[in-house]
Amino acid sequence: MKTLIWDFDGTLGYREGVLWAASFLEALDREWPGHPFTLEQLRPFLRSGFPWHTPEQPHTHITTADQWWEELEPLFARVFLGAGVEDPALARRLARQIRQIYCNPARWRLFEDTLPALDDLAARGWTHILLSNHVPELASFMDVLGLSTRIAAAFNSALMGYEKPHPAAFQGVLEFVSDSRPVWMIGDNITADILGAAAVGIPGVLVRRPDERAERFCADLTQVAAFVEDAHGPGDSSRD
Predict the structure, then answer these.
(1) Lowest mean pLDDT among 134-143, 150-159, 181-190, 229-238
(2) Which residues, 6 or more positions from 237, have their beta carbon under 8 angstroms from its beta carbon?
(3) What's the CATH class of domain 2-14+108-236?
């Protein structure tokens, strides 16, 4: 079996708007029409506090989606307070709305090249695995977007307890694919996806967002096959 490990957000799909900041602004729009806040005021307070901001720290104690969101609600409230919401009760009420807003499947999209690339690579004999730093509801997005029938298995940091580039995130996938080779990592984040995979012996292809540290880069997914199908490339080397 030949295996491709895919990142999701920024690689296969994306959320409309400015990711998390847009969800916080939508909560404010619902609760406080005409509020004075902007995306620019919210963004600085979203740059830390999420599990993927401290990938060196496992969170294996989290075992359910409800627990994952409950642990983040204090952070969400602090974001609103930091941006200028003066009423702590209002900040907590807003915080409780973020899960429903962020996880609205209608807000999620695939890039135009995603399904054609996955189908082409599958026809070439590649098995697709998902490995994503994401919210627990990722599987529901996959169903709506038509990914579930194309992905053999999905590994989600929210419930694994390890965020990329933590080695354990990749090791869990390697254990699942067992002796499969070649194995490649495809992602848009040089640190979490490409360098993280390289640290455990998995070659990678950086997509969409160029970085001079990447050995292999392609601007879109249509070019991935050119790298992984190269019979003399590093993707054919064993992991031994």
Answers:
(1) 229-238
(2) 182, 203
(3) alpha beta
- Angle at which helix 88-95 crosses helix 65-83, to 10 degrees, equals 140
Q: Hey, where are the domains in the chain?
A: 2-14+108-236, 16-106
4-60 pLDDT tens trace: 999 999 999 999 877 799 999 999 999 999 999 999 999 999 999 999 999 999 999
Is residue 231 left, alpha or beta, with left meaning phi > 0 and alpha meaning psi from -120 to 50?
A: alpha
Cα–Cα distances (Å) from 63 to 59, 66, 130, 139, 229, in that order, read 9, 9, 19, 16, 38
CA distance 111 to 156: 20
Q: End-to-end alpha-carbon separation of the chain, Å?
A: 16
